[in-house]
Design brief:
The protein is of the alpha+beta class and 671 residues long. The strands form five sheets. Strands 14, 15, 16, 17, 18, 19, 20, 23, 24 and 25 form a ten-stranded mixed β-sheet that branches.
Length: 671
């Protein structure tokens, strides 16, 4: 295969892609591919890359072919030194300053230098083929190294597949300032010929159609099998949330997962739904205990939740339902089961489909988790030093974390809308796209796990505590809910509620949600710390009212027409999303059944208002309301109600039975 002019090849590829589908590659990326290429050397991996100047193109998962100048390692006389593949698999195009302008169009060159590599390329007519898979996480990795010396041509393009996770290498090199990357990259110019990425019209069209129909990063079982066969997936994390909303589970070899767990599921100890925060078994549960021997619970993967976990090396992830071994019915105590029950209630009430979103906030710190633990989580230094809210400059300083976070979530079946600074120092918010409520709750727990593990990898700490600092705003998880029927928002209508045009169902749903909030408050604010958010002037609600687009109200009505929805600002970032969404749905659906009218709209500053119903002020108060709630018992059933009453009471008692440093400092000498 004689080498050709590189600009000619780039222009040909540009024409192919424009003809195939303009949706497959952004026009900015197409423009930059025609620009001059130069060699750049990455200081971390000592690899040289061909870098395209300018903006970022995105192949959106389309499989292309790159004919590199790399030896296939099969002794076929390619004439190019063999490359150590493992040394570059983890390099991220999106996370090194030097490569950020590459437009994700890069080709690896052999170890040893630009001139030697270019000479070898010009001399060699037999080159190996590398498969480049575009990935929203910004990673480049070899999916295949295949000798094509005898054919002298690239193989036929394969069908587009899902994004492939890259090796989990550190995404940034930090200097003495923990959140800054090193940027001292050397560069040199060199001529270099390479054949273009090839993409057929059929493959591009298929990729564009698939992108519309499916969320990127979600997998079918067949796709998982293919990735396992190609050695792209080695591990499957099988998880469920405990009562706190924490992910627990097992790691399977991918081959054994396909052989066994896909059909039969797996088992775990029943104590997973009956422990405290320290994983200590707690007596007093009917569901599990020493008296019952802490037997097994059956965990059945919900394959609709199967996804790439791009922040982990060669890993997929799936969430499980807890199922009774004998009846095969959902175990009613599991948080995911509780939400599924309310989804079924919505369907039975008139084929209603709950659509939802959650807005998670969190604080990010310069110390890592181990350092934070050694300091008893006190005196930690946040990544910022002034108010973060909508602040672009401060946000840019923290892109070492949020850039990879957005990419990894996007590549792992969690579509991202945006990220931004929040009002607290070091506080942030990353928002994902709304979905059906079960999928949204799944995204919520995957999101939290991804960000925690990413923080661990990057040597920083993140917390989803509701109120980590009393002098800073708390971190919330505002819930957005609407009901849809036949593809239309059932909240939209021509009835009047204050200044809002809405349906009767909207009005009654709001009335029921507000009525039952105090007795279900434990599901929105489940921990002792949760109640320290509810302070006047802190952006957190304090009194139970609703208002039109008013951030001082716990029930904020926003949108219009098909976007009309209710935002509940009560839940903290520490809530279990399955339980919080289930509580909201159960309350609102009860409002529709019984045509519960909401109170009159509130206008003005809720913080200054008098004689309004207060939100519960402590976990103890909320637990007492939950324990005596007939509605909560009807919603959950007697056994499940007892289970969660005991769970929340145990957490409350753990706090009451602890003597704090504050108490000793205040009373030890002075009393």
């Amino acid at each position: 295969m004689p080498c050709r002019d590189r600009r000619t090849e780039v222009e040909e590829f540009r024409e192919q892609l424009i003809d195939a589908s303009q949706q497959t590659l952004s026009m900015s990326g197409l423009e930059t591919m025609s620009a001059r290429f130069s060699l750049k050397k990455d200081p971390k991996t000592s690899q040289e890359w061909i870098q395209g100047k300018g903006g970022a193109g995105n192949t959106r998962g389309l499989v292309g072919r790159v004919q590199g100048i790399e030896s296939c390692g099969r002794g076929c006389g390619c004439g190019v030194a063999e490359q150590n593949m493992a040394s570059w698999q983890g390099v991220s195009l999106g996370d090194d300053r030097m490569l950020r302008q590459a437009g994700r169009q890069a080709v690896l060159v052999p170890r040893g230098g630009g001139a030697a590599a270019a000479a070898a390329a010009r001399a060699c007519e037999r080159m190996s083929t590398l498969v480049r898979r575009g990935s929203a996480s910004g990673h480049l990795r070899p999916a295949t190294l295949r000798c094509v010396c005898s054919a002298l041509v690239a193989p036929e393009p394969r069908a587009p597949g899902p994004p492939i996770a890259a090796k989990n290498a550190p995404l940034a090199q930090r200097s003495s300032s923990p959140w800054r990357r090193q940027s001292g990259s050397s560069s040199s110019s060199s001529a270099f010929s390479f054949s273009t990425l090839t993409a057929t019209k059929k493959a591009a069209a298929a990729a564009a159609a698939a992108a519309k129909e499916r969320v990127r990063g979600l997998l079918t079982v067949e796709e998982l099998k293919r990735l396992v066969e190609e050695d792209e997936i080695e591990t499957v994390v099988v998880g469920l949330t405990d009562c706190y909303g924490r992910l627990v589970g097992k790691r399977f070899t991918a081959s054994f997962f396909l052989e066994s767990a896909v059909e039969d599921g797996t088992h775990g100890c029943s104590y997973l739904l009956a422990t405290d925060m320290d994983m200590e078994p707690v007596p007093g549960y009917r569901f599990a205990g020493w008296e019952q021997g802490y037997g097994d619970i059956h965990l059945v993967p919900d394959m609709r939740s199967l996804r790439i976990a791009s922040w982990l090396e060669k890993t997929a992830f799936v969430l499980c339902d807890v199922v009774d071994d004998e009846s095969r019915a959902l175990a009613p105590h599991a948080p995911r089961s509780i939400l599924k029950k309310q989804i079924a209630e919505a369907h039975s009430l008139g084929d209603l489909v709950p659509m939802a979103a959650s807005e998670l906030e969190y604080y990010l710190y310069q110390q890592n988790f181990e350092e934070a633990k050694e300091k008893n989580y006190a005196g930690l230094k946040p990544v910022g030093w002034h108010r973060e809210d909508y602040h672009i400059l401060q946000g840019s300083r923290e892109e070492f974390f949020h850039g990879p976070a957005r990419r990894h979530l996007q590549a792992s079946g969690v579509p991202v809308e945006n990220s931004k600074g929040e009002f607290g120092i070091g506080q942030h918010e990353l928002n994902v796209k709304y979905a059906e409520v079960l999928e949204m709750a799944d995204r919520h727990v995957v999101y939290k796990q991804c960000l925690k593990e990413l923080a661990d990898q990057l040597g920083v700490a993140i917390t989803f505590m509701a109120k980590p600092h009393f002098d800073q705003p708390g971190s919330s998880s505002h819930l957005h809910l609407s009901l849809w029927k036949d593809g239309k928002n059932a909240f939209h209508g021509d009835k009047k509620l204050g200044s809002i045009s809405c349906s009767d169902e909207f009005r009654w749903f709001l009335g029921g949600w507000m009525k039952h909030t105090p007795e279900l408050m434990v599901f929105y604010a489940p921990n002792v710390n949760s109640y320290k958010r509810f302070i006047a002037g802190s952006w957190a609600p304090t009194q139970l009212v609703w208002s039109r687009d008013n951030r001082t109200a716990p029930f904020r009505l926003i949108g219009s027409g098909k976007s009309l929805r209710i935002e509940c600002r009560l839940p903290g970032a520490d809530c279990n999303p399955y339980l919080a969404f289930a509580a909201a749905l159960a309350s609102g659906l009860d409002g529709i059944r019984h045509k519960i009218e909401p109170p009159a709209a509130f206008e003005g500053d809720v913080y200054k208002a008098k004689n309004l119903q207060q939100v519960p002020r402590s976990l103890g108060e909320a637990v007492a309301l939950f324990q005596k709630s007939a509605f909560a018992k009807a919603m959950l059933g007697d056994d499940v109600h007892h289970h969660y009453a005991h769970f929340f009471e145990t957490e409350h008692l753990a706090h009451l039975q602890t003597v704090t440093d504050w108490e000793r400092n205040r009373y030890f000498e002075q009393i």
